[in-house]
Fold this sequence. Notes:
Blueprint: H1 3-9, H2 33-47, E1 53-57, H3 65-68, E2 72-75, H4 81-91, E3 96-102, H5 103-109, H6 111-120, E4 125-130, H7 160-163, H8 169-174, E5 179-186, H9 190-205, E6 213-219, H10 223-226, H11 230-244, E7 248-251
Parallel strand pairs: 1-2, 1-3, 3-4, 4-6, 5-6
Antiparallel strand pairs: 5-7
Amino acid sequence: MSVETLDRIETKVFEKTKSLLDTEMHYCPGCGHGVAHRLIAEVIDEMNIVEDTIGVAPVGCSVFAYNYLGMDFSQAAHGRASAVATGIKRVLPEKYVFSYQGDGDLAAIGTGETIHTCNRGENILIIFINNGIYGMTGGQMAPTTLPNMKSTTSPFGRDTKSMGYPLKITELIAALPGTYYVTRQSVHKPLNVRRAKKAIQKGFEYQKLNKGTCFVEIVSNCPSNWKMTPVESNHWMDEHMLAFYPLGDIKVPNVKEA
């Protein structure tokens, strides 16, 4: 078959997501943040809501989201993203509002804001990236660090007797009456990427119903602070992270309501 013939029958299967800015990604190789950004942008484009969407990002690796996502963004103080998102949504209830937060932010300094936002049932979407460690600040132990998992502040592994147990924040959130949709996904394999995108889409769509807070956890890897290659970190995810943080829907809406 000639090159000319091939050119005529080629089918376009990929194009740039419009809501992603033309900015070179700076994240470490293998990091899940870039994939999560892409999924958010795809959903917003496909729903045609870029002009009606406002994101909130706090301190940590998540703070860079507004460098890559081409929509209105507000930065929040460390841990306070859900509180800022609450204020934005109450003033502009017609907008789609979401926060984009890491585990050191949402499940540590921002635990109080997170719990009370969800308990009040604020009509926002919270996207929670959980890599079990503090990423930006040097790989310290986070509330989500696994038992025996090493970090710069637990070099011999997390000792639950002295350091406590990992916080399964998503299960806690699901138990609150103000949450409407709560799920845990990942982005380390193609099938998981598709499921995560579907979950993010539901989180945005459910805001139309004004039924409460939607919460999407994305279990991710942090190859740099885990001291692994990207491939090794994906295997470690399967063997350890997902064994402790199982994937799937935790709280789903009534079918008639959704």
